Amino acid sequence: MNMRSISFRLVAWHAGLLTGIFLLLCAVLYLDLRYFLENDLRLSQSRRTRQIANTLIAHVKQTGEPYVASQTKAWYDPEINDRFIRITRADGTLVYVSGAPKDGSFDPAEIPIFPPTTKAESSRKIKLSGGNTLLIAARNFKSPGNPDYLVEFGALLDPVETMLNHLFLQLAWGLPLAVVIITVGGYLLVRRALMPVEQITRTAEGITQHNLSERLPVSRTGDELERLSLSLNRMITRLDEAFQNSKRFVADASHDLRTPLTILRGELESFAQEAQLAPELRDRAGSMLEEVVHLGKIVDQLFTLSRLDAGEAQTEWTTFDLSELARTTAEQMSLLAEDKDISIVCDAQQPVPVNGNRVRLKQVVVNLLDNAVKYTPAKGAIQLRVLTANDHAILEVEDNGTGVPPDALPHIFERFYRVDPARSAESESAGLGLAIVKSICTAHGAEVSAESTAGRGSCFRVKLPRSKD
Ligand code: ADP
Description:
five-stranded mixed sheet
């Protein structure tokens, strides 16, 4: 997983932020509810102390303390309702205290006497030995002409605690679940949102000089991605135009240069053959002729490349036997090899039918053999093989010549690339032979590769789809 990718960062931010907000909301909800429930209980207890004070204690002079005690018990039935009620005089002596509740949740004797207070209303929480907590509201009853009393009314906080604990558990379970849903949901959303980027990348990867007419997909959403695709498409259009212009220039230049060069060559040839020409002039004409021939070869190769760029190799396809093509070409090239005392051994007996432009594929074999002869010293050996592998035909040209240094190997199929232009074999060439091979192979859906060890030889391999016919 790439932690610096947009999708990862977006999901991490989104999940982190929402988790933080959720945590905060849960904490606020929990604390708020705790305060609300406790306060509600405190208020209802306090209300009851007021009831006792106002309706019973206010008339204690007439009714007497035993009546207050019995009425309090009758009204609130504290033992049944799990409540704590205590009425004490100003000196701390008891008027009434409720008994232990039926469920035994607390013992009223355990509850300490309320410390003297001047406040009319107050409350306190008492932690009992059984672990329960009692919330007690207290009211100071003061009335002119009457003795002072303290009325306490308490109830267990445990139902509130149980409810809050339950809520806490729900949140503790729910929060991780929510984080998982948020993360997965966020990831799916981000993936969906970035899908067009994925498509644009894939299409852009597939656009090369051979298919510059293709355009990136544009989703008509009016958003940043639409603008990006449109801008990139405009850029590809500009590149396409520039590329077409340069191709047209090379095609026009090489085409227009061919005729004057042919005329120049003819003129120089006849000039060099003039009988009365001084030997010195003949030599100079001969070297000029050599240069013109060399120039003509470069212009021819450029012209070939420009026609290949225009898609010429994709026309005039036939099905033919690659082995037969290899054999005849090897035979024709053997004369060239014999000049250097180099042997060409052709191992191509089995018929291997392929589809393609025969003339151009022959050029592949010629260029590879030509290079093999050029870069193999006298008495060397060249092997030409045609093999099959699954659905492919393989043509190999192997020599035991000079080889290519490892740092140069990745570049030898580039246009005008020569490993060492100072070498005699390379000074006569322009570095276009393998570029032509590559261009023809690409047009045939074939791959061309080279293995080489400097000083020991090279092996060039063309892997071509076999004909199904
Ligand atoms: P050129 O037509 O000038 O020979 P190529 O494009 O055919 O150019 O080859 C490019 C370079 O690759 C050459 O300059 C040469 O150094 C190297 N090369 C090609 N074929 C061979 C080979 N069979 N053995 C050694 N070097 C080779």
